[in-house]
């Protein structure tokens, strides 16, 4: 089954394809001829995920998956939240985003946080939503070189290593995106 993943982010595509397995073939936005900068103007992960998926469906009539994910830090009232990718201003500047987060947490004891992902799957024009959450904490300095985003700063509950210190095989089953995808796969198998 072919599904368009509403992104051109190579890390997300690789991560999601490894979770979906061989029964599903992901296509990028570029591969379906979408070169637009898809808007993300909602103030929730659910809203952004639906907005991106509907954008692809309405223009290309292609079954698609869109996700919006981010880091929510308890002591910062849920920041960076939907602004995770552009927390320090420039979209996708992971280094600046991590530095801003560490600066905002200076002197803060409560470093509890969670990664949250909401996936919208549109099949034949009908939207379905799946959510995954992984709790953990933010450490004081980066560790590891795998993954992307805030992975070098986040240790999931029950582990002593950051996401960036885990292989994709270790991270995928426990990650927020992995948990949401597992729900989506279960739904697809039943459908």
Automatic annotation (TrEMBL):
Positions of substrate binding: 7-12, 69, 148-151, 171, 176-177
Binding residues for Mg(2+): 68
Catalyzed chemical reaction(s): dITP + H2O = dIMP + diphosphate + H(+); ITP + H2O = IMP + diphosphate + H(+); XTP + H2O = XMP + diphosphate + H(+)
UniProt keyword annotation of Transcription regulation present: no
InterPro entries per record: dITP/XTP_pyrophosphatase, ITPase-like_fam, RdgB/HAM1
Cofactor binding annotation: Binds 1 Mg(2+) ion per subunit.
Transmembrane portions of the chain: none
Record protein name field: dITP/XTP pyrophosphatase
């Amino acid at each position: 089954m072919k599904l368009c993943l509403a992104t051109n982010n190579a890390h997300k595509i690789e991560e999601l394809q490894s979770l979906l397995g061989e029964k599903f073939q992901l296509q990028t936005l570029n591969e379906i001829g979408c070169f637009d900068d898809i808007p993300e103007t909602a103030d929730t992960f659910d809203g952004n995920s639906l907005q991106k998926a509907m954008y692809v469906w309405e223009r290309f009539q292609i079954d698609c998956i869109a996700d919006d994910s981010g880091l929510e830090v308890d002591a910062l009232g849920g920041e960076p939240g939907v602004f995770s990718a552009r927390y320090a201003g420039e979209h996708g500047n992971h280094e600046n985003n991590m530095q801003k987060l560490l600066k905002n947490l200076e002197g803060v004891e409560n470093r509890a946080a969670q990664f949250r992902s909401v996936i919208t799957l549109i099949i034949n024009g009908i939207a379905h939503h799946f959510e995954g959450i992984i709790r953990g904490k933010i450490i004081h300095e980066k560790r590891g070189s795998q993954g992307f985003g805030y992975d070098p700063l986040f240790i999931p509950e029950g582990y002593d290593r950051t996401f960036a210190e885990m292989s994709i095989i270790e991270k995928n089953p426990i990650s927020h995106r992995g948990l949401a995808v597992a729900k989506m796969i279960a739904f697809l198998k039943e459908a």
